[in-house]
Amino acid sequence: MFFHIFTNRLKCLLRDRMMIFWTLLFPILLAVFFNMSLRNIASSETFRPVPAAVVNDAGYQKNAGFRSALKSVSEGKDKIFSLTETTRKNAERLLEDGKIAGYLTVGDKIKIVVNRSDFDQSIIKSFVDSYLQTSSAAESILKANPPARSGLSAGLSGETDYLKAVSGGSADPDPSLNYFYSLIAMACLYGGFWGMKEVMDIQANQSRRAARVNLAPVRKLKTFLSGMAASLAIAFAEMLVLLAFLRFALNLNFGPKAGLVIFTSFVGSVVGLSFGAFLSSLVKAGENMKVGILISGTMFCSFLSGMMYQDMKYIVEKNAPVLGYLNPVNLLTDSFYCLYYYDTYGRYLLNIGLLGAFVLLFCAGTYFVIRREKYASL
Amino acid sequence: MIISVKNLVKRYGNLVALDHLSFDVEEGEILGLLGPNGSGKTTAINCILSLLKYDKGEIRIFGRPMRPDAYDIKRDIGVIMQNVAVFDELTVYENINYFCGLYIPEKEKRKRLVEEAIDFVGLNDFRRFYPKKLSGGLLRRLNIACGIAHKPKLILLDEPTVAVDPQSRNNILEGIQRLNREGATIVYTSHYMEEVEQICSRIIILDKGKVIANGTKEELKNMISLGEKITVETSAIHPEHLAALRRIPGADSVEYANGLLVVKSGKSKNNLENVLDFLKKQQIGYGRIYSELPTLNDVFLEITGKELRD
Asked: For residue A190, what are the domain limits?
């Protein structure tokens, strides 16, 4: 009997195009959209050397220190300037044509010539200020203590950090991953569509099909659990497809614990399924209302866990930490991030434990409602 | 006794849907449950099937008390609901196979039963169709096939021919009679008097949750005062003629409108000859004449009243 119900439920569910869209295609489309957006943000944040020029005249040639400093930051992989040594006339022309952000002239004083004030111009100014400050300091030191010359160069060029960044794990911190992790968590909760449908197809006061099923000589719980098993199989299979898409098509980094990532997705599928079943058993309104509540509820939870605005997760964590623990989407998102970033399992296990508690709560609530075998009205 | 309902009471708040309803269904009969909208037919069926809670009363099927977990009883019951209850995502064959499978676990036996059900409702050409592609009549037939594929001993049909074309309706009614001939006991609810008159061996009329009439069609017709109804096509009736016709013994009602003279007589009165004699004597020309005995519709209207129901 289990197999009969299971296979037929599989057919029913897999042929429901609307459900497949919301539970599989929608998260994939959203992932593609996120990927495109984040890639653009990343490219816009990449540092580009500032195009600048220096007037190559006698003053410049005479100031060897400045020449050397300027060349040192205009060479190599991490150069700050894309430098052109040229005549004043050419430098002016380049500036007018917008090909450089500004040019420098070296005489008694170092002058910066720009035609507007922006980020690139600020960088040129910062460099010149820094050079003048350092050279002035060097001059003062040499005046006071001429023998210090030998150690001066190393002392002035080196910078000492008094703060040390300590990583919580072996991976680099990457908050942008949270967008994708919360998307996976959202997809898990969308598994609630399957749970919702199972309840609607077993509660005689919610659908005519369910009334017919209730008339059959099969225990209601058996029918329900067989259907839920089919739903879980589909929900988990969809999660595996989504994970594979994110990993292999979008190159998303899940860290080294692939097995636990899959396990977490399974837990997420169970949470989603039980959440949908619980919601459906509680809400007596029609299918459209249930779908509306499921989508809006999941979206709200996803918003709080940073899917639309990354900092929201930290705002919640700072101002209302309890809310974070009561939000299954947040717990799932955090679990994925823990697996990516941390070497220890304390926080991950706490999240999984809380998710387990949610599953128990949802299942108990659903059982309490659906155990009824007679209805007050149909 | 296949079904025994005793003192069944079902309330929805202050509304009494079933008011100490009692009736029995004998083995092998086709029992028609008639009643106006809101009379409690569907509520009664749902209580009998243990889908609905009821406040009071006793229901026994096959001599045993009916409960939601009375699986041995449920195994022998087939139900065709008022509304089509099938899965849109399964084909005709898959739907019948799924519901039949809830009763018949053995695959080979089930396969044979599903084929028989498809043959029975004439859906052979549509077995791979999805319900959304079926017409209203075909959908109803699928609904029936899903309810009877497991060969139940007791079949409850709740208005199975609503919104069905005459051909499909005829097919469904013939099918029900065939199931009965093959041994199934049938409980059939409908609004359509002619259907009930055509197929039911006994009829119960419900109103306001109570049985107000119970018997064969002949017995029911004998319960009402109305007898023969004579209709004459004529265009020359004057008020004095009507007054004279009303004096014919047993003529309960004489009316004339739109060229039709209608004379209704009381029970057991035969006035056709008297009316014709009168017309001849008065030299009133006439066209066609109809003489009709009371129908179930007349019985129904007389018993339940003519006021509109919800």
From this structure: 2-40+174-370
